[in-house]
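User: For my dataset I need records formatted as: sequence, then structure tokens, nothing else. Please produce one.
Assistant:
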Amino acid sequence: MPTTLSSINFSDVTDFVVNEGHGVKGLSDMGLKTLPKQYVQPLTERITTSTIIVDDSIPIIDMSNWDNNGPKIGEKICNAAEKWGFFQIINHGIPLEVLDNVKAATYRFFKQSAEEKNKHSKDFSPTHNVRYGTSFTPQAEKALEWKDYLSLFYVSDEEAAALWPSSCRDEALDFLRNSQIVIKKLLEALMKGLNVNEIDQTKESLLMGSKRINLNYYPKCPNPELTVGVGRHSDVSTLTILLQDNIGGLYVKKLDSDDTWVHVPPIDGAIVINVGDALQIMSNGKYKSIEHRVMANGNNNRISVPIFVNPKPNDLIGPLKEVLEKNGEEPIYKQVLYSDYVKHFFRKAHDGKETIDFAKIN
């Protein structure tokens, strides 16, 4: 197994990174000076300064004093979901220690040997619910993305105790548990904006019946201007709850723009929230899931920890009847099985917003 830069034949980079489990961290740790050709993105996919604006920013919403100011805060949440699809929340109630611990656990997992991490890869993991990997869908991509990840689908505390890696299990579970209250507040506010005044058990299952937490690692990259950490996409979730570190690199496409991207600045203790495709479909297009992508970094390693709040795999998703009844709207989207929608997303490379076409009424 190659362990030094000189011993790698770069025609075999994909095998080293993907199949042997070294990930892009393995390449970065060897002190690469030049980006392997497998990671060079087409010009149209690169993030350039000509398309980035720095004088605009996604909304920042203060969640404190919810008991007294809930309706006003709720209006801000709904407005942000319509106009931006992204916003940051502060004073959300998740202890800062919980956020710091899961960031530390992310570094701890990825510092392990390739052999240890590869125990959780597609070929070796004892469960589909735990997956270590790199890029997005390597077998379908013309150019790979500069990212490694650990994906943990939550079923129960018992399964997590048995199958999640011990290096990060407790911290990931703690972040999941502590996010529950804020997730429910966000969804209650967003549902009120759709004429749904109460979230019963059926609605709760539909909106947040399953959850997945990812630990993402973006190692220092040679020639970051030639590649991406993550390509253009929107999430397939109901909501995504994202913890950034202080490095930055997340860019959001401005609504109704051809190619204008806004940086999401790291704010200490803040959580980034974004609308996913499932909520866009359920809101019949009122709330927007927005394209976003991640820039590679030439100076620093970077991490992020998203929680994807999803319908259950066997749920049918489509425009909510309350939404259609409120304004006499015609549905833009058909009813689709959520697991079919997710499979469609993961079969192909990142392609902006094209996945949503799978659910549109022709």
